[in-house]
Every structure is written in C-alpha cells, then in structure tokens.
Amino acid sequence: xxxxxYHLVAFLVVAVWGxxxxxxxxxxxxxxxxxxxxxxxxxxxxxxxxxxxxTRRSFRLFxxxxxxxxxxxxxxxxxxxxxxxxxxxxxxxxxxxxxxxxVCLCPLVAAPLIALFYRSERLHxxxxxxxxxxxxxxxxxxxxxxxxxxxxxxxxxxAFCACLCWALYSLLMIPANQRYDTVxxxxxxxxxxxxxxxxxxxxxxxxxxxxxxxRPDILANLLFLGxxxxxxxxxxxxxxxxxxxxxxxxxxxYFNPVTTVLFAWVxxxxxxxxxxxxxxxxxxTGMYLCNRGKGN
Length: 296
What we know:
- By secondary structure, this protein is an all-alpha fold.
- It has helices at residues 2-29, 34-54, 66-90, 96-104, 106-117, 126-143, 153-179, 182-195, 198-203, 210-213, 216-244, 246-250, 256-267, 274-294.
C-alpha cells in the first residue's frame, strides 16, 4: 500500500508540473519574461521553505562538509538554473515540439547514466521494454501526427543539455537522500538555483516591474508556481525519489506531455486528438511494465 502511495504522489507531481507550461504561457502573455518567472517562483518557494525550516529543531544552515555543500550546489544548478536556461534558450533556436520531445525523453538518458554508478538502479528485461514503450508514447503525444522534425543543431543541443541536467539531478539526489532529509535538500536546491542565476542577470540585466507582478491574475499564477509547483512539488518529488529510487521516479517524466495537453485542453481549449489517446495508452502500458518488472 505504501508503494502505491509513492507512485500516486509521483504521478500527481508530474501532473502539476505538466500544468506549469500553461500557467507560464499565461504569465509570458501577461508581460513577464521566462527568466523573471523562474526567479520569482523560486524566491517564493525558498522563502516559504526557509520560514518552515526555522521552526524545526533539526534546522541547519549548511551541510556537514564542504563536499556535501558542493553536492547541494550541484543539485541547485542541474535541477534549477542550468535546466531552466538550457530548456528556455533551446526554444529560441528550435521548435517547441523538438524541445518538448527531447526533454521529456529524459528517462532514457537518466537510466543508463544512473546505472553506471548504482547497480541496484539498473533496468532489466520487461522494464527495458516498458521504458521504450513509454518513450514511444511520448513521441506520439508530442508529435501529434505531424511526423516532421525541423533539426536545429544549436537548439536541439540545448534541449539535450536540459535533458542531461535533469538526469544529473536525479543521479546527484541519490547520495543527497542518503545523508540529508528532504526539506534541507529542497531548500538548498532553491537557494543555489537562485544564486547561480546571478551571472545570467549580470550578462542580461532585467528589472521586475511591480505594476505587472501585483496584478491579481499575474500574482495568483506566480503564487501557484512558487507555492505548489515549486515548493510542494520539489519536496514531494525529492521524497518520492528517496522512496522509489531515482530511475523509477524519473520514469514518471514520461507523463509530463500528457498532463500538459490535458491542462491545455481544459484551460486553453486546445484539441484532444487520437494521437494523444494512442500515445497516452502506450505511456500507461509502458509504465505498468516498468513497475511490474520491478515488483512494485
């Protein structure tokens, strides 16, 4: 029963993250840039989590060693700033379809990378078939019947870098989860994610217009992204990775395009197609085979 709860939480987190593309689009249309949105949502998440952490007896400001503090920095960079910068800049040079497809195939990169360092995380037999089937489902959902990709070496490389960043984040979470609690790790992810954005803004200065940020619709979307999609979801995701393992949790990224399409259908009135239904069925079947093969 406990493992069922872990899987349910992983699915819910990915469902919320799938919705962030829609809410981010609304904020972009409202006048904010992608960089501003990222920083504002991480500031909200970090402040809330810091306040909560200060109420705990186990509060600590730093990790127990410099090596572990550098590990936390690595998590903040790979899961925060670098992931954001590579993913968003990829869309400046290639299509959204290419970016979404490459990024959402992250489990195919994460699984062999993690297996190089942790034998217990390796996929076997039916699990490999399952993850390949789920990956095929992602391709069907994202391409949506338009089986033409416009190759762009720079943009596609940046998208792959975003994919690699999340795979590295999953890898680094394994030793972090072995030594620290979820709240501490997540707070550090937000802190170093924000800190490592400073060089970006030194190169590309930007202001934060209060008249835009304080508009009720903009503020509501930012609070959702900061409180729910960032603070609560990162906490839940890091906790699930500790319980299910890095590879099993990362496989849920396959559901990301499915939830994005569903939220776009509900909020933006975008159309559900037969390809979406076929792709979703492939993803569900693939995930079932992955989990069955692991005995979860």
